């Protein structure tokens, strides 16, 4: 799954829904819209793209962005409902956030040497330090009282909390006994309310979107877009979904 760049050369070979059949044979980048296609928040089609001098066919999904008044296109070979492509693409970015948190909080981007062995050692140290975040995550998630908070847990926030507790972790690792373990657990539990996005009530996180998509029955509008009941106004929902996307 990948986001299609504006200059990508993809030719429409089949239209499944959302736009007129007359667009077959055109390039996606040549499609222009003064407004959203009638009733179509989502466009689904098949397109061909040249890869290493040979043509390959892929499934292409477009989501209407009311802010820029264009469709955002995604290339995929996943056999899932079109409405699930955007939430799944957002999940892909959680992997990027893991590396971002390692750089921001665990100094992965600070390598003061050109020696290969030192570089490898520092990178491994950052990854090992990141494993400590799982201990913080497991202990704190168990204490969260709302499912919405659990779905709004931020890996970057958990990593930041772990760095704050670095002295307690080191103390326990160098002197592994019950007193230091209890001290570490006590300090971790003090940060229970710091590990989730405080704006979880105002905007849907990736996991909240998927939870509504998978667990609850999907509510459909004319364009068969996933409709979240807390946003009664569909136009407001559209704007929030794009403006507040993490």
Relevant terms:
single chain, 246 residues, alpha+beta, 2 domains, five-stranded antiparallel sheet, 41% helix, elongated
Structural class: alpha+beta
**Global morphology:** elongated
Strand content: 15-25%
Count of individual beta strands: 5
The helix-strand sequence is EEEEEHHHHHHHH
Rounded radius of gyration (Å): 23 Å
Quote the average pLDDT: 77
| Count of the separate structural domains | 2
Number of helical segments with 4 or more residues: 8
Instruction: State the end-to-end distance.
Output: 18 Å
- Arrangement of strands in the largest sheet: 1-5-4-3-2
Q: Low-confidence stretches at least 5 residues in length (pLDDT < 50)?
A: 220-246
Helix content: 40-55%
Assembly type of the shown chains?
single chain
The description of the largest β-sheet is: 5 strands, antiparallel
